[in-house]
Structures are given as structure tokens and as C-alpha cells.
Amino acid sequence: MTSTRERFGFLTGALIAILVVGLLGAWVTRSEPDPGPIAKAGIPATEEDTNPDADANDERDEQAKGVEQRVEAWKKAVREGRAGQNGKRLYLQAAASATATGWAGEIPIDTMVDDWEPAIAADPHAPYVYLLTTRYGTEPPCPVNCPTPFIALAISTDNGVTWSAGRPLCACKGKGQFDPIIEVVPNTGYVYALFMIGFNVWFTKSTDHGATWSPVVKTYGNVAWNDKPILAVSNDGKDVYASFNGPTGGDPWVATSHDAGATWSQKKLIQSRRYDYTFDGDVDADGNVYFSISSILYSNAGKHSALVGGEEEHVFISRDKGATWADVTVGRTQPGISCTAVGCTTDFYQGHSVVSADATGALVYLYDGATVAGGKQSIYASRSTDHGAHWTTPTVVSAAGEESTTPMIESGASGDVRIAFMQTSGGGNVDTWNTIYRRSTDSGRTFSAPLRISDATSGAPYKSAAGYAEVYGDYGEMAITNTGKSIATWGEGLSYTGPGGVWVNRER
Q1: 112: left (phi over 0), alpha (psi -120 to 50) or beta
Q2: 64 φ, ψ to 5°?
Q3: Cα(first)–Cα(last) distance of the chain, in Å?
Q4: Are 235 and 194 a contacting pair, CB within 8 Å?
Q5: pLDDT surpasses 70 at 159
Q6: How do residues 170-185 score in pLDDT, each as one tens digit?
Q7: 67 with 148: CB under 8 angstroms?
Q8: pTM
Q9: Per-residue confidence (pLDDT) for residue 17, from 0 to 100
Q10: Cβ atoms < 10 Å from Cβ of 426
Q11: What is the pLDDT averaged over residues 91-96?
Q12: Do residues 129 and 121 touch, judged by C-beta distance below 8 A?
């Protein structure tokens, strides 16, 4: 499961541990268009952006500035004939590529827009695949007070071979939509999604393969602001968990629903000076809930500032449907290379983690980090066979001498783990990136040889034979189709500001 994850940066740049034990289990223990297919919101303006917290105000300013910069970068590229439509010319032509062995070849999800930060989910019993992306560079989906950007939904009915045109997930009025996350309920095929309107997290679902969507429901209750949501769903779809950042200054919260998303309760897990970013979550076959969290300390909390001290990797676990939570440390690293791309926040490459359970409940946790402050990051993998109580010594799964970030993971049958991540080409040069895929059949003990699945070598101004110019978004995602094939999506761009696009590749 998507940020979003642009810390203290321009999109949703979130607002993040010490053990605190609260009463009644409140803390963890640490060791308006035509509706058609579009969800109607009906959101009062007073609920769209209720953020009295000072940290949220700082982030709101950063978000507004960032949106403006990205829109202006897109307009400039259009004027120069590098993006959108210039006469009859598109900026993305058919991409020339030598496809990765066993894969169909990388394609853009839409050649006419500026897409950022995608999420993907596949139906385990039918050939449906669903993709959400944060969309710039096109007209808003409704005539008045419509959001820029908005969340666009594309659907494939043939396991990613072909895709529908992207359409708004929700034509909800507001000050921009961000951070989409999407999941398929394994037992029913229903589709659940989270996204943000301003700094609030909303839930919607579809029971007809994405043709229509429910009116959106707020997950956050009376929590003043929320950011960077992650979604985890039980096999029957009744138990739904949304993790997000919130007051004070980026502390982790979990919203829980036991009626398939109709109503929600909220719980603050920890209060500390650290900023805790959730990047992934899963629910195993026994109903145990897992959220991966990267914990970071900023020199000036609540404002864009340098990282200080080490990074900590945690998994938050509930074995009683969200009533109580335990926090287990998986690993520790140092903050790595600062991002210097146009518009980039210094911490853009840092603080990502993902977790996944296979059919038997065996867990694999991936995270990025460096061994020395300011050094090149690696991707580390750790395993647990006792429902997260204990974890193996982390091992490196990325290439030595390269900068790596933004891990992705999905698990299938017993022992089956698929992973991907962004990695530089040519000795850590952060101007050239590729997306790398590996697979394990022994629960993450060993992995197949690295395979470059960002295999298109032209077709966009940020593409070359060596790779793409910049990671575009705080996360990409993977899924496994009903035929057992991997499908992955991620963003590529000219810079952090863009323009850029969302790309997809799938196993044949």
C-alpha cells in the first residue's frame, strides 16, 4: 500500500518514538459533475481543511507552494512543446525499449498529463487491476472549486494489458487531493481506497469493480489534521485500518473500522519529538495487523529542517483488531544523501519502509537507509516467522555503490515475496535512476538476480538509455494478479517539480 509523502515538502509533506503508556489502551507499548461512476462527496467546506495545529499550517503553506511550482513547471513544458499537446505532437511517443526478460515492457499510464505518486491493487480471483495517481496537467473534474491536483482512477480488465482512461475517483470540491492508496478485498473483490482532501483522509469503496463508488467517509473523526495515509484490510473486508500522521508534529495515528468503512474510531499510538512515517500495511490470514513505520528526528520539528540522529524502523502490530498495539524495532540506519533536484526537499530519498505477509503469515520488511550520515542508501530486508515478535538481522538487497530508495513489496503463497525499488545507475549518480525487481521463493532468505523493469529507454524528456532523471513521488507499488504475475507502478520525472509521469510494467 501510496505519499506521500513529501516530507516537509510541497505535496502532502507530512506533519512525525518515545514509549508513552496511556489510559484505556490509548498508547502502544514499545520493545459535482454527473455522478455516473464518480463518487459524490457532499463535503462541507468546514470539514475539508480543519487544521488549527501550527505544524499543519506550516505544511499547508509548503503544500500550496509546491502545487503552484508543479503546475507552473507543467505549463512551461507545454509552452516549450515538451509536455501535453503542441499542435498534433505529444510529448510521450511510443517508448523504445528492450523489454526486461519475462516482462511486457514499461508503458506510461497516460501520455497527456503530469501524474505523480501512484498506487495499484489487483483482484486475486479476477483479471481486474486498479491504479490511482495524483494528477496534474489537465482540467479539473468539475466546474467550480474543483481540486488541483485530483486523484485519477484507471482500471484494467485484462491484468494490465490495456487500461481505461483515467477518471476522477471523487469529484470532491476542495484544495487539492493527494496520497492515494487502493486495496482489493481478497474474499469479495470489493475495492477500497483512501485519499486526502487538503489535510484530511477520506475513505471510499466500490462493489462493482470500480464502476461506481460510495460517497466518501471521513476517517479522522475530530483529529485536527492528518497526512500520508496507509490502508490495510482484512480478508473479508469488515476490518479496515488507516494509519496516518497527525498532531502533535507527525505522531502516528490509526483509524479503525469494523463495519467495512462505514464508521471509524481513532487512536494516537505515540507522542514524541520524532516524526513517524507509515509507508505500508498488511493484515495476515489470522487477522493480525502490521504497519511499517520509519521514525525520523528533525532539527526543528514542524518546519522544513535537517535530519539529526539516526533513523529507526518499526513495525506496529495489533493482534486484537486494533484495540491495542505493540511497537517492535526492526532496524536502525543513518540519514543518507540529500536530494538536490529542482524543488526537492533534502529528505526526499529517506525514511521509506514496507511490510508484507505471505499466505502463511511469514513477514518481510524492507527499508532504505545509510550506514553513515550523508552516505549512499541501501535497501535492507528483514524477516519474521512469529508474527512480528522477532526479526532477523537485516540483509542488503540493493547494489553496492548505488543510491537506493522507495522500496515496494507484495507477497503471495507460502514463501513467495516480490520486491522492487528505485536505484541509481553508474556509481550513485542521482541524475539517473532505474526501477529494479527481485523475487524470493523462500520467504526472503534469498532473492533472484536484479532485473531492470524501467526498461523504456525513450519516449519522454526524462528518459534515456541509462534510466530516468528523477524519482517522481514518495512511493510506487506492486501487486500480484489472479494469474500469479507481478505488476508494478512508479513515477518518473525531469525533477522533483516535474513534469513527470506514472509508468507500469507487468510480467508476461
Answers
A1: alpha
A2: -60, -40
A3: 23
A4: no
A5: yes
A6: 988 888 999 999 999 9
A7: yes
A8: 0.89
A9: 32
A10: 11
A11: 52
A12: yes
